Amino acid sequence: MLRDMPASLMVLDRDLRYVMASDMYLETVGRTLPELIGRHLFEAFPEVEERRRPLEHSMRRALAGEANSIERLAYSIPDPNDLSRTTEAWWRCRHTPLIGPDGSIGHVVQITENITELVRAEEQKNAIAHELQHRVGNLLSLVQVIARRTAGSSETLPTFLERFDARMQSMARTHSYLIGTNWDRMSLGEVIARQLQYGHDDLAAQMTIGGPEVLLGASEAQMMSMAIHELTTNSLKYGALKDASGSLDVSWSSDAGRGFTFQWIESGVGPAAPSQRSGFGSMILDMIVPSQLGGTSSRTFGPDGLHYAITVEKRSPPV
């Protein structure tokens, strides 16, 4: 009955040597019953003193007559496929005294549950909650900056609302993608597609877009979406996308050091010159985005249109 019991259960004597174990327990620890019978618990499953101590204390309490439990115990066990290696695991243990006919306690029964997946899920949840708090704080700070700077460069309230709303929608398109499996990363190509092609399918023939896969972290994706939104807005008003005579080439490349270069080249526009008044859009392109990405940018106005580039040489992995 004990061997077939649908629980991970084992019995130790007062010297903490194995007397019996259920098949589920043997499967959990990757051992056979002959390998364990008569062996000391800490001989079969050695661990550092810091981890052995609470387990032994709990068992001694049970042998003294006090049933008790350990809700969470970190205790590694040998890898069943390679006993020279150990596998880190978390356990929930219940220790119960086994009372004989004469009232003496000669054994302790342990019912154990491997809760490693549960602990890791909780750790991941806490990490995500911390990241969410950090990300929301950064996002609200960015919204505050955009609101103030947009207001400073807007002559009227309707103008402010139009510009501010457009920038918020741009950020929202990127943020909506950074959920689920895309929580911590987004490809540069996806950022460009969501910003440049949103609502402008009729201009697809004027655009050439291409480059290798470059994965961006959440903050990098938001920064690039801001830059591409400003470039798209300016191109629709003054540049290559204003009418059918212009064309736009957007490309990017990567290097072995995880860096990347993004290029935005307009042609068919005719001679262009920078505005005499530097607005918030220019600040986004020339200062805010390259600074936040830890890179550099260049913006030139050639005989055929605008050429803008961002180069980021060193980056941390977006994971």
Outline the secondary-structure elements.
Elements: E1 9-13, E2 18-21, H1 23-29, H2 33-36, H3 41-44, H4 49-63, E3 68-74, E4 77-79, E5 82-87, E6 90-99, E7 105-114, H5 116-152, H6 157-177, E8 186-187, H7 188-196, E9 207-210, E10 215-216, H8 218-238, E11 247-254, E12 260-267, H9 280-293, E13 296-301, E14 306-312
Parallel strand pairs: 9-11
Antiparallel strand pairs: 1-2, 1-7, 3-6, 4-5, 6-7, 8-10, 11-12, 12-14, 13-14
Helical fraction: 40-55%
Helices and strands, in order, run as: EEHHHHEEEEEHHEHEEHEEHEE
Uncertain residue segments: none
**β-strand number:** 14
| Helix segment tally | 9
Give the CA-based shape.
Answer: elongated
In percent, how much strand structure appears in the residues? Answer: 25-35%
Largest sheet geometry: 5 strands, antiparallel
Widest beta sheet: strand line-up = 2-1-7-6-3
Structural class label: alpha+beta
N→C terminal distance? 48 Å
Measured on Cα atoms, how large is the radius of gyration?
Answer: 32 Å
Would you give an account of this structure?
With 319 residues, this protein is of the alpha+beta class. Helix 6 packs across helix 8, helix 7 packs parallel to helix 8 and helix 8 packs antiparallel against helix 9. The chain is elongated. The longest helix has 37 residues. It is 41% helix and 26% strand. The strands form four sheets. Strands 2-1-7-6-3 form a five-stranded antiparallel sheet. A five-stranded mixed sheet has the order 9-11-12-14-13, covered by helices on one side.
